[in-house]
């Protein structure tokens, strides 16, 4: 596996740990629907939380969360809709981003951006 894949897996594991420490229940990891993949689907306060994890080894070019494009949002919304239908969920959905950024010493900083975008942002 390539180093960037290892870093991405590490970032997702850190995100799960962060969420669990903050009272989130992890429902599914790496939920796939057509071309889309949701990194983490969690539940808290009767909300379904769709979490996109973005990791970068540097922020020279852009912050990790800036890599969530309108195309990515459309895919996430589509996959979230499918998840809600497939598992017969009727709760409100929130979209979060967890950004994992390494510094020059490979220390990792996690930023949890709640309610990062809404489904209509995909249009």
UniProtKB/TrEMBL annotation:
It comes from the Bacteria. GO terms for molecular function: nucleic acid binding. Belongs to the UPF0102 family. This is UPF0102 protein AAFP95_02570. It comes from Chryseobacterium endophyticum.
């Amino acid at each position: 596996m390539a180093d960037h894949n290892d870093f991405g897996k590490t970032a997702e594991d850190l995100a799960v740990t962060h969420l669990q420490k903050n009272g989130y229940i992890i429902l599914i990891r790496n939920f796939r629907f057509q071309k889309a993949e949701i990194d983490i689907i969690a539940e808290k306060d009767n909300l379904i939380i769709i979490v996109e994890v973005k990791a970068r080894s540097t922020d020279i070019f852009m912050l990790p969360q800036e890599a969530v494009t309108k195309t990515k949002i459309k895919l996430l919304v589509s996959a979230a809709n499918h998840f809600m239908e497939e598992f017969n969920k009727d709760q409100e959905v929130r979209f979060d981003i967890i950004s994992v950024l390494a510094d020059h010493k490979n220390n990792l900083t996690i930023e949890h951006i709640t309610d990062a975008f809404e489904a209509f942002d995909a249009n």
